[in-house]
Amino acid sequence: MATEKGNLSISSENIFPIIKKWLYNDQDIFVREMISNGCDAITKLRKLEIMGEYQFPEENHFEIQVVANPTKKTLSFIDNGIGMTAEEVKEYINNIAFSGATDFLEKYKDKANDDQIIGHFGLGFYSAFMVADKVTIDTLSYQEGAKAVHWECDGGTEFEMSDSDKENVGTEVTLYLNENCYEYSNEYRVKEVLNKYCSFMPEEIYFVNTDTIGKEQPKKEGAEGEAQEPEEPKPLNDPHPLWTKHPNDCSKEDYIDFYRKVFNDYKEPLFWIHLNMDYPFNLKGILYFPRLNNSYDTLEGTIKLYNNQVFIADNIKEVIPEFLMLLKGVIDCPDLPLNVSRSALQNDGFVTKISDYITKKVADKLSGMYKVEKEEYEKYWDDISPFIKFGCLRDTKFAEKMNDYVLFRNLDDKYLTFKEALEENQEKHENTIFYISDRVQQARYIEMFKKAKIDAVYLEHMIDSAYIQQLEMKNEGVKFLRIDTNLDKAFTKRTSKKDQEVLDEKAEKIQERLRKLKGNDKIEVKLQNLKNAETSSVLTVSEEQKRMEDMMMQMGMMGMDHANLEQFKSPGTLVLNNNNELVQYVIENIGEEADENADLMLEQLYDLAKLGNEPLTAEEMSKFIARSNKIMVLLAK
């Protein structure tokens, strides 16, 4: 066969149904596209006026009206922008995917930049057919002597064009809704969609319900009971959102009010970062640091992505680094390489640069706060530490920038850096940091550490387990130990080898008895001479065992049942204080033959020690209470 060349032929009969049904993920997005077209029409006229090619009429006020007619089941979008001639209607409307915005920029590329021009692909208008059986356009161009044009299409590939009686410059698009989409002629539904997509569109948007036109509006009463005129209608949107302003022009109250308005969060944010960048790409926004709860379930915020003040989506992971998803905020980047439906991103390399910039700005803000406003930084630390640690786990560059600004709160409520925390116990425990995972459960150990003048830090968030493992991997020889892992020489009196052998023999005897009482062959018992005679018993669990249990607990959160989790738990090692009177009673009276009182005391010592580590099970608690009552009866005799 001979070589043949030619042009691909695309049939509108085939492509139009695809555009109508599959171009956009969400049906209600047509409202965004219609409003965007209206904003572009006004923006073009503004630019022509700046270039001296058009003169605004007196008292001109640019706006977009959204008119719902519940009776006729129609929804109209009216702008007083640039309008179109008949030739432009043929070019921009009848030619699918021919962008009027792109054509405008090409014509005036030497005189106008593309700031605030939203459209690029020429497909947004056709989203109207997702909800309408018929669409009409009435438009009048700004050009002197232009005639108004009427265009209509019933959703097929045929259209009609004729003269229109429209008298004002601009465009009116009317959607005759299909029976499945009558909801879009309802005032509350339309306002809901406008709030979702158009809250910050660059031109004022007003809503009109034709069913209420002509009806008398209630008048407000003045200070002395006199009737006042009805209030002037207010736009539904804010054309000048806070992120478009310079940070120096924004007050604390402005930032807080904006936060509450956008995120419906009554709580005040901790602080915020105002992003304002013009080179090498255009990016503006505000990132808020909210208060985080001590739970994995709450480790997700909402970051709204905009393109020229047009809402795109929440939490687009390609732009927002994963760890920043804990924040709340808005980011507006006109340079984002969006696909034709403005719902996904293209050009991974460019998007990565944007993501890296955002990460850098957050790290710079935090490190700068530590250097300049250290007291404020420490005040916020407990709230922002999960976010920062999550960031260090997920982003190597962020971790490198934040290494010296991660804080640890010690037993004296003093905030220490990682290096400072290591130095606190350097003389007694080289390269070791003791930590507390639950200040209530571990209260006895905390008191013992304070009396022994050994420091420890609070690491009570679920993310801390993974974070300290990362620190150990990056810092060879450094280890984190929970304060209940062991009782070394700092807590015990010096004991000779011979005396310790005697204690070990007694401990073995007690261990055998306790295993029978508890029905658990894994229980270990040690006898030691603790410095504090008032401490009768404590339970220790190895750090490795605790971390494995933490890992299994996380698996439990993902579906593992309680019975399977329990088999991985260690009963721990019961450390009995040989210097304590109650322990001496047990030592003297325990044996192979059952001694009820000694058995009572031994089980009680174990449960008391366990309570210092974790809550008792329901069955254990029931037995503990019954046993406590028996012991009190013995004391009362």
Explain how this protein is built.
There is one protein chain. This protein is α/β, with parallel strands linked by helices and 637 residues long. It has helices spanning 12-22, 30-50, 86-92, 100-107, 187-197, 252-263, 348-372, 374-394, 396-402, 418-424, 443-451, 464-474, 497-518, 543-557, 562-566, 581-589, 596-611, 618-636, and strands spanning 64-69, 74-79, 132-140, 149-153, 159-163, 170-177, 205-209, 271-277, 283-289, 302-307, 310-314, 328-332, 407-409, 415-417, 432-436, 457-458, 479-482, 524-528, 537-540, 573-577. It folds into four domains: 14-212, Histidine kinase-like ATPase, C-terminal domain (Heat Shock Protein 90); 242-372, Ribosomal Protein S5, domain 2, CATH 3.30.230; 406-482, Rossmann fold, CATH 3.40.50.11260; 497-541 and 560-636, Four Helix Bundle (Hemerythrin (Met), subunit A), CATH 1.20.120.790. The strands form five sheets. A seven-stranded mixed beta sheet has the order 5-4-3-6-2-1-7, with helices on one face. A five-stranded mixed beta sheet has the order 8-9-12-10-11, sandwiched between helices. It is elongated.
